[in-house]
Amino acid sequence: MRKLSLAAISLLMACAATSTARAQAQQAATPLYTLQQQFVDLRFGMFIHFNIPTYANQDWPDPEMSPSVFNPQKLNCDQWAKAALSANMTYGCLTTKHHSGFCIWDTKSTGYNVMNSPFKRDVVKEYVDAFRKNGLKVMLYYSILDTHHKLRPNSITPEHIAMIKKQITELLTQYGKIEALIIDGWDAPWSRISYDDVPFEEIYKLVKSLQPDCLFMDLNGAKYPAEGMFYTDIKTYEMGAGQRVSKEKNRMPALACLPINDSWFWKTNFPEKPVKEPAKLIQENIDPLNKVSCNFILNVAPNRDGLIDSNAIAALQEIGNTWKNSGPLPALTKTDAPIISHNLAHGKPTNSSWSFDMNIMDFANDDDFGSSWTSNPEVQQPWYEVDLQKEQAFNAIALTESRPNIRGYKIEYFQSGAWKPLLKGEAEGRVKIHRFTTVKASKVRIWLESYRSTPSIAELGIYNEKK
């Protein structure tokens, strides 16, 4: 009988693990609303930026930095977990791969990983084991932007997308239950990798096929309006980049993040430089954010030995002495499922009734919620039209304004040479999302029937949301 090679055995084991995970995923998923409520009820957690940038004194190191520098000789993930517990945190989230592409788990997708460093231990495994042992929930961070592997704007290949899928599959099949996967470096002004360059819908569905109860959130989702759920299960706000959730109006399940130091990865001056004041973190972040259904995740960066510095440890203990998780937050307002598919209207030819001079029709499908098509005030029955250029299937439309103004409208579609009615809408909010039985059309037109002042449209999105 022919003996299998070690490589073949490893491949069979990996396939078996993936098959098991997929089989588990066939079980009924927990409703998204329930998962969102459970997430905001966690209230407060620890972000852990620990990767090859830890050894560069910069958040974005040279993408060719050698794995030989990664050697945390005193790594103690149990210390991290106990530090989180001391602050009454409920979970952790570790940077499995940051923008420079170094993987701190035993991946088979690339040689640029921890097993080819002097350390040669799977940091992700040690982290998940330590946090679970201490009763904390486990989340993972993963960057789409990957400068080492040249996964960057204008350079993305099918091999890159295959690598992303392989890496996410490893992370979601080899480390048990993952509460959430936080994605970064995607559809951001600085990463310039769109949801079409790396197909969002495919990655989202892969995650849900492997772990249906794993929340999927894009850390760069603040570009989208706060009132609508686009390309994420949880609204996200990177406070260090100036993004702010409304502490008065937010009603969406949300996450806000901030480092306890002045940057995300450890720097040589961290041991001596004061961290953020614990009292202010409670008064200005944890408490007011929790009141508006926003979970707060505080980054605490381990040093080059793999340990959290004593000044950060002391600050976390001080937080825990003052702040307690007082239990579940008020029930969330139920939201629709997130939009996850390609916007068929983006960049397509448009037409409209007479526009305001400087705000013509092209501004309403430019993927920029800060610009708008605006009707000329003289027009009494404004309309706006998108030419899809060929008949295409769609089953959802999102109408977004810069501010709530439009109240009543009707939408029609052009099919086989004739305009047909699709729906009539009447809504007060800034974001108006409609889902309906799939139709096919080459054009879509919206008639604006009632509004408080001169109407405008920031974005008209047309989607084919596959089940």
Structure description:
- Helix 1 (6-25) packs across helix 5 (158-173).
- It contains eight helices and 16 strands.
- The protein is globular, with a radius of gyration of 24 Å.
- The model is unreliable at 1-14 (pLDDT under 50).
- The chain is an alpha/beta fold and 467 residues long.
- 22% of the residues lie in helices and 24% in strands.
- Strands 5-4-3-2-1-8-7-6 form an eight-stranded parallel beta sheet, with helices on both faces. Strands 9, 11, 12, 13, 14 and 16 form a six-stranded antiparallel beta sheet that branches.
List keywords for this structure.
467 residues; alpha/beta; eight-stranded parallel β-sheet; six-stranded antiparallel β-sheet; globular
Short description:
The chain is α/β, with parallel strands linked by helices and 467 residues long.
